[in-house]
Amino acid sequence: MRDNEVLGTEPISKLLLKYSVPAIIGMMVNGLYNIVDRIFIGNIPNVGSLAITGLGITMPIMTIILAFGMLIGIGTATNMSIRLGQGKVEEAKDLVQNAITLALLIGAIITFLGIIFSDKILMSFGASESTLPYAKTYINIILIGSIPNLFAFSLNHIIRADGSPKISASIMVAGCLLNIVLDWIFIFKFNLGIKGAAIATITSQSVTAILGIYYYISGKSNLKIKNIKLKLNKHLIKIIFAIGVSPFFMQIAASMVQVVCNNSLRKYGGDLAIGAMTTVGSISMIFLMPIFGMNQGSQPIIGFNYGAKQFNRAKNAYILSCSAATLLLLIGTIVVQVFPHIMIGLFNKDPKLMEISTKGIRVYLLMMPIVGISITGTNYIQSIGKAKVAMILSLLRQVIILVPALIILPRFFGLNGVWMAQPVADFVSTSIISVIIIKELRSYKVKNEKLNEDLKMKIEIAIEEDSK
After folding, report:
1. 442 SS3 class
2. Please, are residues 32 and 22 in contact by the beta-carbon 8 Å criterion?
3. 23 lies in some domain
4. Given 242, 257, 258, 331, which residue has the most CB atoms within 10 angstroms?
5. What's the pLDDT tens digit per position in 134-187?
């Protein structure tokens, strides 16, 4: 039985496990890159609290680099899949080569501009005289590695589109494990501190990039590229950017939100408040990464069944994924509310930072149990082909509601207002998305009745023709 037939016939629960587990593993591995860095940096003797604050200040820049990786990687991978489906193999090969050239050019520009203006950028992103040295030390090394960073991220998507998801996942896992080992060696064995963490990151990304390039030049790839040509094709760049621009702007928006948040934290809570948010964000990532992986796994199931007009199966896929997400986030909330010190202690044990982080995390993640509804709901709307509505809904939680909340609430509640902004955004966005989802699911009753009427009519016509 072909995969597309399986999507329409196998039990939804079995399909969700089959498609979601690999995606969840991939998301967790990807998330570990950042989380492990923060754990090691936060535990640097004597300076860990300031170092993790410096790292938090660099996050908007890291997000911007990721945005360009998505622009190239997702744009290329999607167009590759389409061209391969159309049998246009040569054009698919040209897309890979254009992606490599774009990664080289954009990576070089990011490195050049980033290092020249690093002081001004970091100060505007929330750095102080105390935290600037740590932020600058870390980000300048990361910026030097912009090209391998873009290579690693882009090729990961491209190799998956080339029909080798297992190889893509294996390369990711290898890079992550290498990063963990090198973090420990460079930070604690060589006493390089935050500089060691940055060197570990770009080294592991470079190895990931080399493995990705080797996949193509070794002849093991499905698309055989003998000689990589660096000449750009205007038409191919245009179609890459046309697809990649949506996730690109989503990440740019996320970066700007991080800037607003960092400046509010520094204004109302000082340097350590930024370090506390870095810790809190890392802990929330541990619980949210599986949900994003579940979304990736449920997308083809929902999309296929909705397209096949099997609305109840699409609905059940959403309900099951939403229920699993809610249960996981409920467990996460209980752990965070009851044992915050244990979770925060993984990243840093500085008493002052622990105090700020403990108070902050209990407020910041207060609405986490209902977040699964909005995250899986947005994914559902996207999976049934309503991309524009899905984009607006995804921006609700992290931009449209959150930014005004970050600006307004601290004026009345100080640092607590910064922590309150996220649960307020979570509650409002979930309420709006719930209404849209309920309306969408209720419409299936009418659609199913119409389908039954059409089927009944076809049967009656067929019977009449047979009787003649």
Report:
1. helix
2. no
3. no
4. 258
5. 999 999 999 999 999 999 989 988 887 787 877 887 888 899 899 999 999 999
Q: What angle do CA 380, 392, 62 make, to 5 degrees?
A: 95
What are the φ and ψ backbone dihedral angles of 325, each rounded to 5 degrees?
-65, -45
Question: Length of the chain, please?
Answer: 468
Q: Which domain range does residue 231 map to?
A: 43-268
Q: Are residues 253 and 120 part of one domain?
A: yes
- Write the pLDDT tens digit of every residue in 327-382: 999 999 999 999 999 999 999 889 999 999 999 999 999 999 999 999 999 988 88
| Residue 30 domain flag | no
* Residue 9: closest CA among 293, 422, 305: 305
CA distance 170 to 197: 22
- Give the C-alpha separation, 154 to 313, whole Å: 33
Running DSSP on this structure, what letter comes out for residue 400?
A: I
CB-based contacts of 448: which residues, under 8 Å, 6+ apart?
A: 311, 312
Domain shared by 264 and 274, yes or no: no
User: Taking the alpha carbons of 381, 387, 389, 395 in that order, is the dihedral positive or negative?
Assistant: positive
Largest interatomic CA distance in the chain: 92
Whether 446 has a pLDDT exceeding 50, the answer reads: yes
Q: Which residues of 119-147 are buried (b: 16+ CB within 10 A; e: fewer)?
A: eebbeebbbbeebbebbbbbbbbbbbbbb
Task: Say if residues 421 and 367 touch (Cβ distance below 8 Å).
Answer: no
| DSSP characters over 283-310 | HHHHHHHHHHHHHHHHHHHHHHHHHTT-
Distance CA 103, CA 147 (A): 6
Say how many domains are in the chain: 2
Other beta carbons within 10 angstroms of residue 280's beta carbon come to 26
Is there a domain that residue 61 lies in? Answer: yes
Please give the angle made by the CA atoms of 407, 413 and 415, to the nearest 5 degrees.
Answer: 75
How far is CA 138 from each of CA 118, 141, 147, 423, rounded to the nearest angstrom? 11, 6, 16, 31
